[in-house]
Amino acid sequence: MSAEAEPPPLHRRGRPGDRPDPYAWKDTMTAPPPRTDPSPRPLWVSVEGINGVGKSTAARAAAAALGDRCLLLDELTDQAGDTLPGRVIAALAADGDVCLRTGHPVVETLALLALKVREAERLADRYPAGVDVVLEDRGLDSVAVCQAAILADHYGETDPAALARYVLSTARAWSRLPDATVWLTGDRTVCTDRFAARIGRTLAPRNLEVIHRTDDLYHVLASDEPDRYTTIDTTGWPPHETASAVEHRVRELLREREVARVA
Q1: Tens digits of residue pLDDT in 65-101
Q2: Which stretch of DSSP H or E encloses residue 85?
Q3: β-sheet bridge partners, residue 70
Q4: Are 33 and 221 in contact, with CB atoms under 8 Å apart?
Q5: pTM of the model
Q6: Which terminal residue of the chain, N or C, has fewer Cβ atoms less than 10 Å from its own Cβ?
Q7: Where on the phi/psi map is residue 130: left (φ > 0), alpha (ψ -120 to 50), or beta?
Q8: Residue 134 pairs with which residues in a beta bridge?
């Protein structure tokens, strides 16, 4: 797929020749009122962080330690290629960009949001018996920060934080956000080196820029919602220590929820 020089007319505002507006895409969709569904569901915890910080390894190990009470949702990019998410991710990755850029960031954003909303809707009222916590490897927050970084780069937007907040508010209109988010931080250079080694590729400067901006945007969202976010600095930690910290925090959240229910 070739990169578009500018968004199609549907995504333009103002006079011809004006700089493309990265917010114009919100006019192409109509969101329902924010969800207020009071029905109970298992505690939903997302694990977030930049590529290479160790979130997938930690999420899988924590889920294994929690046993049958935990349902692990794999990251979209780790799902089987013969599933709908797998096919969508394959299409986004067809050009070989590690950030799933096709040159159409609005379409990419809406596609990823749709996959995450679909994932939650398919589980609604159909959780396996005995499950009291869902552990999600990358949730809606990932879509917000990653795509805000990409949208800002594509359109020359100077306030990517506003874009991240807008993407997340759009997601909130269609689906409940996680009850809690565990954000893993670490040394950026160590993380990106680890990621590059895992995929067997050298990361281009433009990809490093997106990853670094993504990390900055996680800081913004964590500051916006300190009650939802738990930040764990994994700098210098081995994988088992990170996994143990995630498991410990999830158990704490489960205890806090049970106390709140009894009260």
Answers
A1: 999 999 999 999 898 888 999 999 999 999 999 999 9
A2: helix 84-92
A3: 133
A4: no
A5: 0.84
A6: C
A7: left
A8: 44, 71
